[in-house]
Amino acid sequence: MLKSDFYYNLPEELIAQVPIEPRDASRLLVMDKETGALTDGTFRDIKSLLKPGDCLILNDSRVLPARLLGERVGTGAHVELLLLTPHGNDTWEVLAGPGRRAKPGNTIAFGGGMLKAKILEVLEDGNRLVKFEYEGNFYEVLEKIGQMPLPPYIKKRLEDGERYQTVYSRELGSAAAPTAGLHFTPALLDEVREMGVEVAFVTLHVGLGTFRPVKEDVVENHKMHAEHYELSGETADVINRTRQRGGRVIAVGTTSCRTLESVGLTEGRVEPAEGWTEIFIYPGYEFQVLDGLITNFHLPESTLIMLVSALAGYDHTMHAYEHAVEEKYRFFSFGDAMAIL
């Protein structure tokens, strides 16, 4: 299977630059995963697709204000760091740019010295390992001086940082938002619960590796990045109850999907778990837990469109994307949604 099999032509004007208001007014393309049949609607229609006894699994990770703009101590040269992964003891793996200004031994100051980062080493992939110095609570300092790390295809400035957070986000740790959940409002979630659909949460902290292009021409040779996840006993009980009563387990977002499939046991059961996952889901994969998926439209040749193809079928998926382009759906993080059921 080749990376190029997952290419589709996307006009640049279809890449959403701003979130739509209200959140649940976005469009929704519904696909029957068995037949590939497509229906156009709006995200509020999601209620008509759910049934009493189903469960929705959402990722409650919250995006860090992980973009730091600073100056190299001694020269004043501008340096940008993007937080990726904590390594303990105030040490983080980061992206740094420009790289020539972030060499081992250099110190970068942010917020007038409120936060400092010493470059410890350059890792194999070019990322940096840095150690931070600050007073007080690291995350409170970040909230004061950090910026929201929007994907590079979003060129417009985001006026309200909360629009790049889900309304149920609570566990700080992601470098990017689990964007399928951006369409839900508190009222819509309440209405879903009132229908008899259980709503439960997992945590998977989204890494920027999610957006890195697949470099291998042969899909099977690609190695996924690792992301940290947690699935609680409460959520495990919801999933197992749903299975027992014949309901459907529906993931909101590819991150929720990857968490569920990382912990899935025989007959779709799950147990509480925490750890790191490098699961790579592409056509041919046999799902253990998932019955349905609510997701956004993903980049051509990305691991995410490969995951969707694994659930919905390759031909069905590529046809759906062609339809979405023809009908001028909005794509990527602030774009419209797709439900595969």
Notes on the structure:
This protein is of the alpha/beta class. The protein folds into two domains: 3-63 and 160-340, QueA-like (3-Layer(aba) Sandwich); 67-145, QueA-like (Thrombin, subunit H), CATH 2.40.10. It is 19% helix and 28% strand. The chain has seven helices and 17 strands. The chain has helices spanning 46-49, 138-145, 186-194, 233-244, 254-263, 303-312, 314-326; strands at 27-31, 38-42, 55-59, 61-63, 67-72, 78-88, 91-97, 107-110, 115-122, 128-134, 171-174, 198-204, 227-231, 249-252, 273-277, 292-296, 337-340. Strand 9 (115-122) and strand 10 (128-134) form a beta hairpin. The chain is globular and about 65 Å long.
Low-confidence stretches are none
Strand content: 25-35%
Number of strands: 17
Main beta sheet: strand number and arrangement?
9 strands, mixed
Number of H- or I-type helical stretches? 7
Task: Identify the CATH class of the largest domain.
Answer: Alpha Beta
CATH superfamily of the largest domain: QueA-like
Helix-strand pattern = EEHEEEEEEEEHEHEEHEHEEHHE
Question: What separation lies between the terminal Cα atoms?
Answer: 25 Å
CATH fold call of the largest domain: QueA-like
Q: What structural category arises from helix and sheet content? A: alpha/beta
